[in-house]
Amino acid sequence: MSQLAEQISKSIGLLSAVEAVTNRRAFITLFSTFTAAALLFALFTAVAMGFLSNGHYDLSKITGGIGFLVVLLVAMTGISATGFLLNDSIRGREQRTISSSLILALATLPRVLGVMLMLFAIGLLLLLSVALVLAICKIPGIGPLLYAIAFPVCAVVLGASFYAMLFVVSLHGPAIWEGNAIMRTVAVLGAIARQRLLSVIIQSILLGMLVGLVTSIIFGALLAGVSSTSLLSLPILGQGSGVEMLMGLASHFMGMGGGNGAGYATAATFGMILLLGCAIVAPALVALSGSCIIFANVTENLSAAVMEKKLQGAIDAVRQKAEEAKRHLEESRNQLAVANTAVTAPAAPSSTYLCPKCNTPFSAGDVFCGNCGNRLG
């Protein structure tokens, strides 16, 4: 069996990602952090809109920016903490507590940002390299010949890089959840992109289909359950026929209702939000668990030492060039300072004197002039 066939055969293990829905700690962690992010979003939005309605545009923008960062931080922390819990379960390790996973998620957020920055720098460097190659193809005479070779090469490189960014970069989370540092994570992702890109693409597509299937099942069951419960509960509450009460409940959902049914409508609204939150969290758990499974599959017997060594060498070379440029800049600055000092410094007093009789120079301490014999002093 070839390596690719072996990797694809392991994709059957993606079906076990559905078990993530039954992981109580992971479910509670993701649901609670998503709920907190939603509440914070609503709070900051209300405050920002209040500032905006009172004409405080700058305060509104600042509040909106701070709110966005806070909500993003809470959401990323929840996703990362859930990933640690799911990865422990997939690897067969003892599952950590929710609090410890949240603390670990906060501690590793700088790694996530560092990996994102490094991948962005690599992508930017790739684009600049392709632009440089295309600029070389503007050479008169041999330009079209060079372009005939550069065009297919650049197309393949950029196409493969696009798919690597689309599928492989999403595995940075499982790489960090496995305990890899920034450099090691980028090296592992690079090795996956070079050696097992096709396997990652196939397994990612299968995972997407699985998540779509789970989502359709959950929301289908939710729609059926909500409709049936509404049709049964409204007539029992004595509010009229089922269809009329369903329309009345919908009006209460939109804040248009009142009277005795308002309390039931509020309770139903709360329950509906709770159900929607659970329905959203369940497919998210399957997606996170599937990503961990894919990472475990494609990194088995994968060596990233060569890629890590190349990355470290490239970083060391950039750092060395930066230090050399800094040293040259300091030397140039020192030379300029010395030149300015030499220009502005007063002339040193002469150590020689002139004979008053023949104007022949003589040194301090001479008694007679060496030219005319005149007595000095």
Structural notes for this entry:
The protein has 11 helices and 2 strands, in the order αααααααααααββ. By secondary structure, the chain is an all-alpha fold. The chain has a domain at 108-329. Strands 1-2 form a two-stranded antiparallel sheet. α5 (143-168) crosses α7 (182-195). The termini are far apart.
Notable traits:
377 residues; mainly alpha; 2 strands; elongated
Average pLDDT value? 80
Q: Give the total of beta strands.
A: 2
Distance between the termini: 109 Å
Order of helices and strands: HHHHHHHHHHHEE
Spatial shape = elongated
What's the story with the biggest beta sheet? Answer: 2 strands, antiparallel
Give a concise summary.
The protein is mostly helical.
Layout of SSEs?
Blueprint: H1 3-9, H2 24-53, H3 57-90, H4 98-136, H5 143-168, H6 172-177, H7 182-195, H8 197-236, H9 242-253, H10 262-298, H11 305-344, E1 352-354, E2 361-363
Antiparallel strand pairs: 1-2
